[in-house]
Amino acid sequence: MAAKSKLSVGVDLGGTNVRAGLVNSQRIVKLESKHIRSMGSEDEVFADLCSVIDAVFDKKVRSIGVGVPSLVNVKEGTLFDTTNIPSWKKVPLKRRLERRYKVPVTLNNDANCFALGEKRFGVAKKADNFVGLVIGTGLGAGIIVNGELHSGIHCGAGEFGLAPYRDSILEHYASGQFFRRQDLDGATLAKEARAGSREAQAVFDELGRHVAHAIKLILYSLAPEMIVLGGSVSQSLPLFEKSMREALSDFAYPSILQQLKLKTSKLKEVAILGAASL
């Protein structure tokens, strides 16, 4: 008897782009990405999503897993209020994808997929209690408790970025939105800081203090043994780590802080791997 195919498709849908990978066990064998029409209609965004899945789909694929920046009714496969995609207020995505591709589809929050990928394939394999903190376009988190993903109602657990902070919410200060709110380009600013610009470095120093507040909130809420940083902004950690750690020094429980393992993701496309493993 021929062995069953282990092929699956993992999809990471963001507020500005979508990536899909054809996954064979723990390895991405084909990858596709494209910008999405974030301000487009529900059908236009769905077409953008399907175009990347089409590019990697194989007739031997057994399932599709999708990570989305929104609340998710996992059982029904319905999305609610997708971040940065205004037209996706309530989308029966599981039904639409299963109708098109004729394979089972599982959905979850994108930050949860990141945490799941780190638990199964990344730096948190041996950690039973950790948080995957995604610092990118926004600020999201996936929570692993006793080795299992803790999603909460409609995958709403871990939305620390929406906590009230200063004049708005934490996400506006501890993610890529921190730069955009100042009409700055984070990638350009990082290059300038690495080249020795004091002005650019000062911006990252401030970012570090805001990220420290997010970490404190996580520590007070969950006291995990590890926090794994991911997302585009986390790649600039060397530029804001010093100020971040200085701002953490007044955390009320030093013994917890001393035991915390703070790591950055080392695995490429970990959210795709996590989604494929759903």
Question: Can you summarize this structure?
Answer:
By secondary structure, the protein is α/β, with parallel strands linked by helices.
Q: Assign an overall shape.
A: globular
Number of domains: 2
Q: What gap, in angstroms, lies between the N and C termini?
A: 26 Å
Name given to the CATH architecture of the largest domain = 2-Layer Sandwich
The counted number of beta strands is 15
Largest sheet: 5 strands, mixed
Name of the top-level CATH class of the largest domain: Alpha Beta
If you had to describe this structure to a student in words, what would you say it looks like?
The chain is α/β, with parallel strands linked by helices. The protein has helices at 42-56, 93-101, 110-121, 177-180, 186-194, 198-222, 237-248, 254-259, 270-276, and strands at 7-13, 17-24, 27-35, 63-68, 71-73, 78-80, 90-91, 105-109, 130-135, 139-145, 148-150, 164-165, 168-169, 226-230, 261-264. The strands form four sheets. A five-stranded mixed beta sheet has the order 3-2-1-4-8. Helix 6 (198-222) packs across helix 7. The protein is globular and about 55 Å long. It starts with 6 loop residues before the first strand and ends with a helix.
